[in-house]
Specification:
By secondary structure, this protein is an all-alpha fold. It has helices at residues 27-41, 43-68, 70-87, 89-99, 106-116, 118-142, 154-179, 182-188, 193-206, 208-227, 233-251, 272-281.
Length: 287
């Protein structure tokens, strides 16, 4: 016996993973362009959201620097790159409102982020928290191999840096693959965390070139934000969040999954101009 949702979707007929489109390596630049449009349409909400996140990052980083060590701070900043989708879910809601011709209300966005999908978000957050804690511990343990001899040469330093980079790359690959598209999918469609995570991993593996470019842009943006005493993050965080939402819509075909029965994404998108641009680029989606 098939179990159907209120929207008529049969749970048994839904795929285990949503299909993904093949992306150009330069697709992330288009996501940033669309993200900038969203930023300009909702500047006050974007700057307020960015300010809150920037302050949180600055406080955590400075506490790690002064109460712990610079290595802990670097681990925290590195981890932010991969837990950013969780932080930016409110920004996905702002983009979703703009696409539907709705006023971009920050309160409604936070309600969607903190209440509508809290179950799946908590599962995802716990998984990321465990990975991040192990990653932070590993980052601290790597310092054991740091050469303490004052005359340490290039070979000793190169070995230390290579080992630390290899350890970080393993955790980075796991967390980035799992988080790249999963939370936007949870926000967009009525899916469970496992389906969203598997879909994200599949899409990343099938679009390694584009995702490498996207990861590079995120890292460069974070470094720029830190280099400006965290002030640049006020703009960079919303821009990345909006771009990530458009990246999800550009990559994942979630039409086989039902919409949410209530909330922002319960209604279809209404972005004729963007759909025209997407058709021209060969990246149209159903919304």
């Amino acid at each position: 016996m098939k179990h159907e949702t209120a929207s008529g979707f049969s749970r048994e007929d839904m795929p285990f993973v949503a299909p993904c489109r093949q992306l150009s390596p330069w697709a992330p630049f288009r996501w940033l362009r669309l993200g900038l449009k969203d930023f300009l349409k909702a500047p006050q909400q974007s700057l307020l959201y960015g300010l809150i996140v920037a302050v949180l990052i600055a406080v955590v980083s400075l506490l790690a620097w002064f109460r712990g060590s610079q290595w802990i701070m670097f681990a925290m900043l590195g981890g932010f790159v991969f837990i950013a989708p969780l932080i930016c879910i409110g920004l996905y809601a702002i983009s979703a409102q703009l696409e539907r011709g709705q006023p971009p209300l920050l309160a409604r966005s936070l309600r969607a982020a903190l209440r509508r999908h809290v179950g799946n978000e908590m599962v995802f957050a716990i998984v990321l928290l465990v990975v991040f804690l192990v990653w932070s511990r590993a980052a601290i343990m790597v310092t054991v191999f740091f050469p303490t001899d004052g005359s340490a040469g290039f070979r000793e330093m190169a070995g230390f840096l290579a080992f630390g980079t290899a350890v970080g790359a393993v955790f980075a690959a796991i967390t980035f693959s799992a988080s790249a598209f999963s939370l936007p999918m949870i926000m967009h469609r009525n899916v469970d965390s496992v389906t969203a995570i598997v879909t994200s991993v599949n899409a990343v593996l099938r679009n390694r070139g584009a995702m490498l470019v996207w990861l590079t842009l995120i890292v460069l943006g974070l470094l720029l934000g830190v280099a400006t005493a965290f002030v640049g993050l006020v703009i960079i965080v919303p821009l990345i969040g909006y771009a990530a939402w458009h990246g999800y819509l550009d990559t994942i075909d979630a039409s086989a999954f039902p919409r949410h029965e209530i909330g922002i994404t319960a209604t279809p998108r209404n972005v004729e101009s963007e759909e025209t641009e997407a058709v021209a680029d060969g990246t149209a989606d159903e919304g």
